[in-house]
Design a protein that fits this description.
It is a single chain. Helix 9 links the parallel strand 12 and strand 13. This protein is 34% helix and 18% strand. The chain is globular, with a radius of gyration of 24 Å.
Length: 517
């Protein structure tokens, strides 16, 4: 095979790339050594049954996938598979934080090779600069431990356009400013837009405002991801309808699918059937979920809208304290009481709301009033295990963490390890090939990542090597920072990023959405 043809195929992702004999030449031409995985159990991300194989990586891409028993190319690093699973790296469609400022080693430790930022309506930024393009430029120059993609963020766009947080109906000029900035950020490589409709300022935005932005997103074939208006049992279908309407004609995506206060597998099946019916009707509706029955967010969602910024909170407390107190008691009673909220913010971290209030000598409602809506974040135990597990196990629901560095919730350090340990190994409710697909090919499809998420010659070599029975999610709600174990090697763009229980490189890069012609 001619050398120039092979290199063109390698760059373009062709299925048949090369022969073993040409690998040393390719490696030298690219300035990269090759890696040879011998006798692995290939789980390719497509959902196909696992098979034994030898896999060669050259430069940034998978070069060959052959039956086991071949010889190691000259100059290649040999990695004995010993029957361990070799799979595409996990793609997290809902991640918090900023890799320019924080460590994502815990994500590598559980097999994550790509994260998506800018979720829940709030995006990463450089200082006070609200333009995502500034952050993208900085990320382009940074040494990243894993691949990073970003969404434009509705709340950030709103503030960049000078729209007051509590304004419900921005004028046409303000909407035009938002749309223009959104177009610039999508052109620069954002993968779509996110909404955070339970948070300020998204809580004040009406459906017409959101729908006006969807036209811009659709022109770029972007995704519209939403922390929806409500995830409550009696409101979730209406929230999904709002998402579909506000994303039209674009692609709506439900962030962290759950039913707060819902109970049982039957309710989960009812919601999944509802979503499936939307797909059959031609709506490209997708969702992700995490395998835990507690969410994690700020206590602001406990407070009434009239007590949230930009209201004068001191004046609210002075003039409407009893009304506020009654609201908080009613809200927390429905949410399981003060023992069902585990605070994750200093100086109360690791204590329930009941414990923190008792130590302060206050009724829990008075404690909440004292610290205010911005006073803490925590794990809210408002979901039913049986219901949530049905959502997580559904073949059409991707897996995400909704986590970030420093978050006091085990989802930030254990999500993908728990997926393997609990549902694949311990309970046998999910075959390994189906579990991997939900964390790789499915999120790649949602984000339109054409060269990641599956393993075949020509795809980017974001790979993980592990023995499923040795994978452990060690973190708990009381010990949320314990890193996962069992992912022996994590390769990002053809280079090892994590091995032997620690990060060994920074081969990640900023990913930009492909331009739509």
């Amino acid at each position: 095979m001619p050398r120039d043809l092979t290199r063109r195929q390698l760059a373009g992702g062709a299925v048949a790339l090369t022969t073993l004999a040409t690998l040393p030449m390719l490696a030298a031409a690219q300035g990269d050594a090759s890696t040879y995985f011998r006798d692995v159990l290939l789980v390719d991300g497509t959902g196909s049954l696992p098979r034994r194989a030898d896999v060669t990586v050259v430069g940034e891409r998978v070069a060959t996938i052959l039956p086991p028993g071949g010889s190691v190319p000259d100059g290649a690093r040999l990695v004995p598979g010993e029957g361990r699973v070799l799979a595409p790296g996990f793609i997290d469609t809902h991640t918090h934080g900023d890799p320019l400022e924080q460590s994502y080693d815990a994500f590598l430790a559980m097999g994550v090779t790509t994260i998506l930022l800018g979720v829940d309506g709030s995006g990463p930024r450089i200082g006070d600069d609200l333009d995502l393009r500034t952050w993208l430029s900085a990320a382009d120059r940074a040494a990243l431990p894993l691949n990073v993609a970003a969404l434009a963020s509705h709340g950030t766009l709103r503030r960049a356009a000078g729209i007051p947080d509590a304004m419900r109906q921005p004028d046409d000029a303000a909407l035009a400013r938002m749309a223009a900035q959104l177009d610039r950020e999508l052109t620069a490589g954002a993968f779509g837009i996110s909404y955070g409709l339970e948070y300020v300022p998204g809580i004040y935005a009406e459906s017409a405002e959101l729908a006006s932005l969807a036209q811009t997103v659709a022109r770029h074939d972007g995704v519209v991801m939403s922390h929806m208006r409500s995830e409550n049992d009696d409101e979730i279908e209406a929230s999904i309808e709002e998402l579909i309407a506000s994303a039209r004609p674009g692609r709506p995506h439900i962030s962290h699918l759950k039913i707060v206060f819902g109970k049982g597998e039957a309710r989960a099946r009812q919601l999944l059937d509802y979503i499936a019916a939307k797909r059959r009707a031609g709506i490209d509706l997708t969702a992700d979920a995490y395998p835990y029955s507690a969410g994690y967010t700020g206590i602001a969602l406990l407070f009434p809208e009239w007590a949230l910024p930009p209201s004068d909170y001191r004046a609210i407390v002075a003039g409407r304290r009893q009304e506020l107190r009654d609201h908080l008691i009613a809200r927390m009673t429905r949410r399981g009481g003060p023992a069902a909220l585990l605070i994750g913010t200093a100086p109360f971290a690791g204590k329930t709301l009941a414990q923190a209030a008792d130590e302060a000598g206050l009724h829990y409602a008075d404690f909440l009033i004292k610290i205010g809506p911005g006073g803490a974040s925590g794990a809210h135990f408002t979901m039913d295990d049986a219901l949530q597990e049905m959502l997580v196990l559904d073949a059409d629901v991707a897996i995400s963490t909704d986590g970030g560095p420093g978050m006091r919730h085990p989802r930030a350090t254990g999500t993908y390890a728990k997926l393997i340990e609990q549902y694949v190994v311990n309970e046998g409710r999910l075959p390994i090939e189906k579990a991997v697909r939900k964390a790789t090919a499915l999120p790649a499809q949602i984000l339109r990542l054409p060269d990641r998420g599956t393993m075949r010659p020509g795809m980017k070599a974001d790979l993980i090597l592990f023995a499923p029975d040795r994978v452990k999610a060690r973190s708990t709600y009381l010990d949320p920072f314990a890193q996962a174990q069992g992912f022996d090697m994590v390769m990002v763009n053809g280079r090892v990023a994590f091995e032997g229980g620690e990060r060994v490189g920074a081969p990640g890069r900023l990913l930009r959405a492909a331009k739509v012609s």
